[in-house]
Amino acid sequence: MTDPRQILHDVFGFSSFREGQEEIVRAVLAGEDVLAVMPTGAGKSLCYQLPTLARQGLTLVVSPLIALMRDQVAALRHFGIEAGSLNSANDADENRRVGDAIRDGRMRLLYASPERLANTNATEWLARAGVNLLAIDEAHCVSQWGHDFRPEYAMLGEVRRRLGGVQTIALTATADVATRGDIVDRLFEAEPRLFIHGFDRPNLRLAMQAKENSKRQLFTFLDKHRHESGIVYCSSRDSTERLADSLSQAGYRALPYHAGMAQGDRAKNQDIFLQEDGIVMVATVAFGMGIDKPDVRFVAHAALPKSIEAYYQEIGRAGRDGAAADTLTLYGLDDMRLRRSQIEDSESSDEQKRIERQRLNALVALCEAPRCRRQTLLAYFGESTEPCGNCDLCIDGVMSFDGTVEAQKLLSAIVRTGERFGTEHLISILVGEETDAVRRFGHAQLKTFGVGADRSKTEWRSLLRQIYAAGLVSLELAEYGRWTLTDRGVAVLKGQEGIELRSDVLMKPRERRRRRAGFEAHAAVSGDDPLLMELKALRTRLAKEEGVPAYVIFSDRSLIDMAAKKPRSARDFGEIHGVGQAKLDRYADAFLSVVREHAD
Fold this sequence. Notes:
Layout: H1 4-10, H2 21-29, E1 34-37, H3 46-53, E2 58-62, H4 66-78, E3 83-86, H5 92-104, E4 109-112, H6 114-117, H7 120-128, E5 131-136, H8 151-154, H9 156-162, E6 168-172, H10 177-187, E7 193-196, E8 204-205, E9 208-210, H11 214-223, E10 230-233, H12 237-249, E11 253-257, H13 263-275, E12 279-283, E13 298-301, H14 308-315, E14 325-331, H15 333-345, H16 350-367, H17 373-380, H18 392-396, E15 400-402, H19 404-416, H20 423-431, H21 436-440, H22 457-469, E16 473-476, E17 482-485, H23 487-493, E18 500-502, H24 509-522, H25 530-546, H26 550-553, H27 556-565, H28 570-573, H29 581-599
Parallel strand pairs: 1-6, 1-7, 2-4, 2-5, 3-4, 5-6, 8-14, 9-14, 10-12, 10-13, 11-12, 13-14
Antiparallel strand pairs: 15-18, 16-17
Helix pairs in contact: 2-3, 15-16, 16-17, 16-22, 19-20, 19-23, 20-22, 25-27, 25-29
């Protein structure tokens, strides 16, 4: 057996492992079964490629796409590693080369689709060929809870048994607690070694905007990224073609990609994107899985993604080189209706539809989050973090109000019904609607029945999504979408903590536009405005003195508002965006002094 670090240097040319890789490699070399959850770009492939080279035998890699197999085989062969694939795109010479290498014992890594492995003869032949490690990429596809469940993947437990219960490593970037449990149940007889190396991608800037003029919003975003490579996701083939044409006419090198195109045209456009710089790929979700282009500088969604996992996976295709990358997601009511109808009209089981509804609700909660988006996103995957300072909510702030009373009404309804019910039942109780279920469980007699009649059902849905995004409640996805309180939720219910919620997402679109237009009219100052620069310098000094990120003092939007309005009194200062009573008391004197000195 060869030292893994020596192989890492001599074969792959890397001086050190990335975070999390070495312990997984050593677990595989020790003969353990492994389930590894690692963020996109963390180097999952190395976790099975390197152990293969450190010992004798053949590794069988399950991969979902022919194009991905082709690229990985080519990359390995460039490293001098004997690799091949079993797929329908191979010509006769390639099939002969692969077959000879397997028979001679020279083949080290063999890639195959799950569909190919469903053939009993193929797996029996591979068992005789000496497969001693099964590596399953995109392992979330195994699970019915996974956002991209594929029946062919669900058969891989049986494939593993036909291979003699061979050692297995399953890898994915997107698996919440329910999905991880399902993967373990379907693939392994005994509990595998579990490695979870975080979902955070701190180099990605996260932003979401409600649609107003989506084309203008998208072009404003893309103007910051001219001559850079990126992906724009669309919800349909027609919108993909139309947007690619519009971008080409505007001077971008834009290419379409969707399942309705001829396979040759898709492959050609994908190769151009991978090989050249400054290409904007306008695509449906048919594009992306397995795309290993490290310098994608932006990912935009022209419409709401399918689920929170799909969103995470799709934005994860940006910034795989670790450098800063930008994301933007546009969403509207029409998108939500479309996604809901796609779920209801699908041929999925009732159970799978229920799961997909909950995943979509989690994504909408992210859109309406009252706090740092990264906190909300990571909380969905069971992680916590400090406010990131690299999302639109941290940078620009939000229009908010003291939502403690609204939150307490929701939390009380959840507790008084035994933490056993889902969204619509709870909202019926709050607005005082006697549904069949409310009558059946006697919930019209609860103290919370009708306490929220002053708000519409739509508003209460948004408020529930917000307290979910703020970490006050948990959604038990595997238990019929019931809501339960977290420790923080209990504290808010008891009045030990307060909660700020967003008011802008409760407004009608016309009201939002009016409020935003008012802000933009007041805030028309350039980035190099002298007063703005002085205010930023003060903010930086205060942040260093207090040991906090600059945005904790004031967001850029607040400073822009100060520079535009030039407040001269504490009363004026209190009208600035993002200035509540606490910040008024703490910072008014210092910032007003800068404004006055500048005016003088």
